[in-house]
Amino acid sequence: MSDLEKMMELDFEQNQASSVEKIDQQGLTSIAALARTIRDREEQIKNLEQVLKDEKKALLKLTDEEMPSMLA
Question: Is the entire prediction scored with pTM above 0.70?
Answer without folding.
Answer: no
